[in-house]
Amino acid sequence: MKRFDVDSKKLSLLDYFRRCQKVLSSIALGADAKDIFTQLQAIVESMEAGRIASVLKLDESTKTLHHYGNNRLPKLYADAIDGVEIGEYIGCCGSAVYLGKTVIAKDIQSHPNWVHYRDIAKIANLGSCWSVPIILSDGYVFGSFAVYSPNSASPTEDELEVLTMSAHIGSVVIEKSRLEEKLKFAATHDALTGILNRTQFELLVGKMLLNLERNQLTMSLLFLDLNNFKEVNDLHGHDLGDELLTLFAKALLSELRESDVVCRRGGDEFLVALVGTSKKGSEAYTERVRKDFLAKQQRLKYPQHIEFSVGVSEAKPGAYPTLTDLMIEADKNMYKNKHLMKKS
Question: Strand, helix or coil at 241?
């Protein structure tokens, strides 16, 4: 009989491993991170009737935990723990994330970490809690993976192994999601300044022009270029030049509306599309950028302030040129502006 019990346990654990392998396959096929956690929660909950799994994500700025995805916790309890601060003696999840290690409360009513949460846990019919931190490969603790039981209970080695494995698989899908976000960002943004690259800018503005024409709206395209930028790099090094480019990008961004778009075209050249703005209206934007850029340069160790030249082209009802034509016109106007600035 004992032999049969041991074999049954092995078969049960093997079944959980197989189910976890299916989850890993889902990750490889591109399943959403929250969907993956839903699958993992179902696996953990199936270990014993009445169990409820929960995933909490750490908000690094506030050091608080918040629900990630769905769970079956009683609403009263779920609302109470959403936003709880982490700490060495804060329940199981707050403690697990703070310490970076598994925390087990066999009996919530007697465990010292639960002094402030015993009453609400009792109302919610939660008798025990086991929580495992979700730790990424760089050591960052993303959050916690916990399972509650209505009764007092300690995990068996197999149960703890399944819970720990689920938290680890959760960390895999989080890292995959973050890597995909980084790759997507890198493909559409300038590596130095963090604003859109030229390819993504042209894609977005091309679509904007179609919408503008349908709705008979105006748009201004600005072509901006830093003056004497080569001199900065030659005399003071590329580090200062890079910082100057980054500050200029921030100045351009700080004065934009949500509907507007900016990119680094290359080198010290930038493009800005102002939706619903005429050539005359773009002058006000340019002056705000000029003041902001001048103020941002105050902290640079550079003997003189760098100015910029700007050229504007306009798309308006009755005359909707292509994006290429708009850029060519704005480029020509920018060089005219640069020539006038040199003469003055």
Answer: helix
